């Protein structure tokens, strides 16, 4: 009997609604751990979840049976519920609609992991907008700026 063999690594990038700086340090890691748990509970491999106050990077080893859009929908929905139930912010917390998703080979795992791990350091010199545009250009993804995130910087 033939088996299914796979090697799918993807990085999601998504932002807080209105690009507000709401992911605060005192509880940010709890949210990232919660997101990682959602991914694991869905039977996928959470490699790293990290970000800064206004956006998140999620790096995942994905099984071919998992639809990428379904996974990130569940991560965003459940994590916003977690933030709201714990009253980490005043008012209602929401993620912006949409996200970026980028694929990698096994040989790139270490570099992507290190990049995501150093988000705070990275964003001392580069805005989220600059970072996101560089991803779109690097992966040669055509885009119209009006269909991207709400930019505040």
Task: Explain how this protein is built.
It is a single chain. With 153 residues, the protein is an alpha+beta fold. The protein has a single domain, classed as Transposase IS200-like (Alpha-Beta Plaits), CATH 3.30.70.1290. The protein is 39% helix and 19% strand. It has a 4-stranded antiparallel beta sheet, with helices on both faces. α1 crosses α2. The longest helix is centred in the middle third of the chain and has 18 residues. It is globular, with a radius of gyration of 15 Å. InterPro entries: Transposase_17 (IPR002686), Transposase_17_sf (IPR036515). One of its GO terms (molecular function) is transposase activity. It comes from Algoriphagus alkaliphilus. This is REP element-mobilizing transposase RayT.
Jot down its keywords.
REP element-mobilizing transposase RayT; 4 strands; globular; 153 residues; four-stranded antiparallel β-sheet; DNA binding; alpha+beta; Transposase_17_sf; transposase activity; 5 helices; 39% helix
């Amino acid at each position: 009997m033939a088996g299914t063999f796979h090697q799918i690594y993807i990085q999601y990038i998504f932002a807080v609604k209105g690009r507000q700086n709401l992911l605060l340090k005192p509880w940010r890691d709890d949210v990232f751990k919660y997101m990682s748990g959602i991914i694991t509970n869905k039977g996928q491999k959470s490699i790293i979840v990290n970000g800064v106050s206004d956006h998140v990077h999620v790096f995942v080893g994905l099984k071919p049976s998992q639809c990428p859009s379904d996974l990130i929908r569940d991560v965003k929905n459940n994590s916003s519920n977690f933030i709201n139930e714990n009253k980490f912010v005043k008012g209602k917390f929401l993620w912006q609609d949409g996200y970026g998703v980028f694929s990698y080979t096994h040989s790139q795992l270490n570099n992507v992991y290190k990049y995501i791990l150093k988000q705070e350091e990275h964003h001392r010199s580069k805005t989220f907008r600059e970072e996101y545009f560089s991803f779109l250009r690097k992966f040669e993804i055509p885009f119209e700026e009006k269909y991207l995130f709400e930019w505040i910087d």
